[in-house]
Design goal:
This protein is of the alpha/beta class. Helices cover about 55% and strands about 10% of the residues. It contains 14 helices and 9 strands. α4 (about 75-80) crosses α14 (about 255-280) and α13 (about 245-250) runs antiparallel to α14.
Length: about 280
């Protein structure tokens, strides 16, 4: 059977075996981006919804077999996109993005509106796990160092009864080996794939590979597997509540993240100001 046949078969299997979160057709039709919820910042389109709705939307898309590529964008992503044209282009082509972090919230206010939600992959992940477990939608992990994805899978299956992680693989395979393993992914029955390869590698990878993948929903999630496997300690809840998780990460990994935050945050704000002053008026 060719790749397209495997993908079609997996979609039919998901639709046949997954219990409905609501009546499926009503739910998928209802949970789509609405104009009042779409916000544009520096030329990118963000869907401003809460974590529960986002999780429900993605799990139902997986059940329906509808292809969705999910990208989370923070201040660092905007800085990277300024120098990486292929990354910028795929973000601009996306029907929607999710705004991640306080940098985008500040940028929104500079554009004259407020983002009500912070939809980052790390907070969305447990919501998806809970919804996927309830709906019988298997998930899959690709990325991080050897053993990290497998440890995360075991912990999540223990925490969310009914959740099945159908396939895991680390992020350091050669091209030929990765292609061979992706055939196993397509046979696994997974409906949602989390790709943790870092920005912009994971987004470029998703854009190139998603059409040939059986899981209809594919997300780029950065360091998420490291956090949920326990490999990297996440900021305490009160730090996250203050939207200061970036400062915690800087304290934990100063050498790797110094340029990203100490130079990157002022650079990002300067880009937003320049776009607001010189580019906004040129757009319809």
């Amino acid at each position: 059977m060719n790749a397209e046949g495997v993908i079609d078969m997996m979609g039919e299997r998901l639709r046949a075996t997954a219990p409905a979160l609501m009546p499926l057709e009503q739910e998928v039709e209802m949970e789509v981006p609405q104009a009042p919820e779409m916000r544009e910042i520096v030329g990118l389109k963000f869907w401003d919804i809460d974590l529960d709705r986002a999780a429900r939307f993605l799990v139902n898309k997986a059940i329906a077999g509808d292809k969705v590529k999910v990208y989370f964008v923070n201040a660092h992503c905007v800085n990277v996109a300024a120098h990486n044209l292929s990354y910028r282009n795929l973000l601009e082509r996306a029907p929607f993005l999710f705004a991640d972090g306080i940098g985008l919230s500040i940028a929104a206010r500079m554009f004259g509106f407020t983002l009500r939600n912070n939809v980052n992959g790390t907070d969305l992940f447990p919501k998806i796990c809970e919804a996927a477990a309830a709906a019988g939608v298997p998930i899959a992990f690709l990325g991080a160092r050897c053993g990290v994805a497998l440890k995360c899978a075991r912990l999540m299956e223990r925490k969310y009864p009914g959740l099945r992680v159908a396939w895991v693989e680390d992020g350091f395979l050669s091209g030929n080996e990765e292609q061979r393993r992706l055939q196993a992914l397509n046979r696994s029955g997974a409906g949602i794939l989390f790709v943790a390869k870092g920005v912009p590698t994971q987004e470029v990878w998703i854009d190139a590979h998603a059409p040939r993948l059986a899981p209809p929903v594919v997300l780029g999630v950065g360091a998420m597997l490291d956090f949920y496997s326990g490999s990297i300690r996440r900021a305490p809840r009160f730090v996250r509540a203050m939207r200061m998780e970036w400062s915690w990460r800087l304290l934990c990994e100063p050498r790797r993240l110094f340029r990203r935050y100490v130079f990157g945050i002022p650079t990002f704000l300067a880009r937003v100001v320049c776009w607001r002053l010189f580019r906004s008026h040129d757009r319809p």
